[in-house]
Amino acid sequence: MPRLARLDASGVLHYVIIRGMERRNIFEDNKDRDNLFKRRGELLPATQTSCY
């Protein structure tokens, strides 16, 4: 049974981790990884979100 969703409170720090199921790789190659970072780089300023 899935766990309940976490609360999303404005102004609170969140720790984010990305892990593949069964510890499998989450990226096929460097191009795939670069795509994630490119999209994150566009999304953070658009949503005025800080990333430390």
Automatic annotation (TrEMBL):
User: Under what name is this protein listed?
Assistant: Uncharacterized protein
Q: Which organism is it from?
A: marine sediment metagenome
